[in-house]
Amino acid sequence: PGWAGLQQKMVKAVIIIGGAQKGTRFRPLSFEVPKPLFPVAGVPIIQHHIEACSKVPNLKEILLIGFYQPNDEVNRFLATAQQEFKISIRYLQEYVALGTGGGIYHFRDQILSGKPELFFVMNADVCCEFPLAEMIDFQKAQEQLNSFVMLGTAANRRQSMNYGCIVENPNSHEVLHYVEKPSTFVSDIINCGVYLFTPDIFQYIGEVFRKNQQDLALEEGSNGWHRAGVIRLEQDIFTAIAGRGSLYVYTTHGFWSQIKSAGSAIYANRLYLNQYHSTHPDRLANCDQEGPRIIGNVYVHPTATIDPTAVLGPNVTISKDVTIGAGVRVRESIILHGASLQDHSCVLNCIVGWDSTVGKWSRVEGTPSDPNPNDPHAKIDSETLFSDGKLNPSITILGCNVSIPAEVIILNSIVLPHKELNRSFKNQIIL
Question: Which residues pair with 335 in a beta bridge?
Fold first, then answer.
């Protein structure tokens, strides 16, 4: 039996992608494409997750769980990702939103088929270095065979209260206490939304499910069955199992951010472009004699047409079939496919939507929502769109097929799809 124990057992991964009712903070971009497929640093958000999974030894299958209709775009993405990463990727559609725990419990037979020893569960709306192999090694090092691991990272005291907070035993790294968005300071280690479970987690979720069913059976009401199935991993499961010897935290020192709003997509774009130095140097543009001037990290799709007098960067993503004219300046922005930036236009801190046009000499500018650069543990503040009845200054977003005329300024504004503007705007949502 000695050698059998050495064999790497099978691993799977589950990515929770949510559904169409979410992503409201991501409008108007989520009108065109499901948020998990929104491109950041040149590839869809969840491709970064999938690529990290594909590097884990013996990871045999990736399951996406959500309640998007499986449309052409989702199916096309799955087909190309399977070919590129040579791994089975399937989409399991929930018919009602069941919460993070309810979703994996509902599909537990699919997750457990083939008898995986371990499986990851990851939220789609995080950007991260994904130290997955390290989490497996950490799990194997625990004395308890069936321990569960959550990925944590350090935040500052003020911001930690916007997240799930983890109190750990500093020696064993056991999670002693877990509180989702506490009202007072609990801990500066926060939950990253990436977990490693053994199949035993389903016993815990099953306990909560049966308890919910009993509680609801006592209430009169027809919709009890559905409500019993709504289980949140964070509030319902982690809160209950913390301190019982089975939940541990692996703290990463790599980068991590949530991707909740368009502003955080610009920040995630910067983090992933920076990671490409070590993972994909081929994706970063170089300055050459014939091409445009590149400053810092820039991704340019090979189909884009760029005038050599343009200046791009830092932290710019240019998608496929984009046209960029003479003397154009682009910085800290994502330009989506088919967009056209005409001569001498200037685009700063902005997401330019699919097939949009920015006219000559126009300036389209937003205000970055970056974390405090002087605090290594700072995160992005969860932006609210308005405060005191005014639109908060944020990234400027042009929805798809927006046309900006020549010689105007669009500042800190959100332009909904298919609009043709005829003047300058600032601090407005242009419906």
Answer: 318, 352
How many angstroms separate the CA atoms of 197 and 367, rounded?
Answer: 40
The parts of the chain modelled with pLDDT lower than 70 are 1-8, 20-25, 220-226, 382-384
| Token pair for 81 | 């990702």
- Separation between Cα atoms, residue 29 and residue 107, nearest integer Å: 30
Helix, strand, coil abundance in the chain, percent, nearest 5? 25, 30, 45
Instruction: Answer whether 257's CB lies under 8 Å from 383's CB.
Output: no
pLDDT digits (tens, 9 = 90+) for 202-218: 999 999 999 988 888 77
Q: Three-state DSSP class for 74?
A: helix
3-state secondary structure of 344: coil
CB-CB contact of 60 with 87 (8 Å) = yes
Contact in structure between 341 and 358 (CB atoms under 8 Å) = yes
Half-sphere exposure of 332 (CA within 13 A, CB side): 18
Choose among 320, 402, 327, 396: nearest CA to 358.
402
